[in-house]
Amino acid sequence: MQMTGIHALLEIIVQFIFIWLAFTAIQGFHVERLFKRPPRTLPLAIVLLSTAIGYLCANFFLGILTAIGNLTYLVR
Q1: Which of 26, 29, 54, 73 fits a disulfide with 18 by CB distance 3.0 to 4.6 angstroms?
Q2: Tens-of-pLDDT digits for all 76 residues of the chain?
């Protein structure tokens, strides 16, 4: 039971780190320069896009870690 809680906490932390990384990467593009008058909902779109990209990247990273952890069963 203790290990499940630690695993869940690790997943939440990794999710937030990847979402933050995606958000800072998108902010670095300065998307607002592409518009003469940026729409009012542009910040919301950036947050939603960074959440989607961060979620996908975090799931990929966690999947790779799980696969590496399961390689020990191949040797047994």
Answers
A1: 54
A2: 577 889 999 999 999 999 999 999 999 999 999 999 999 999 999 999 999 999 999 999 999 999 999 998 988 7
Calculate the alpha carbon distances from 14 to 25, 34, 40, 46 in Å. Answer: 16, 31, 30, 20
- The answer to whether the predicted template modeling score (pTM) of the entire model surpasses 0.85 is yes
Helices and strands, number each (H, E), in the chain: 3, 0
Q: Which of 22, 8, 10 shows the shortest CA–CA distance to 54?
A: 22
Q: Where are the domains of the chain?
A: 1-75
What would the two tokens of residue 40 be? Answer: 């009012």
Token couple for 51 = 């959440």
User: On the CB side of 57, how many CA atoms lie within 13 Å of its CA?
Assistant: 17
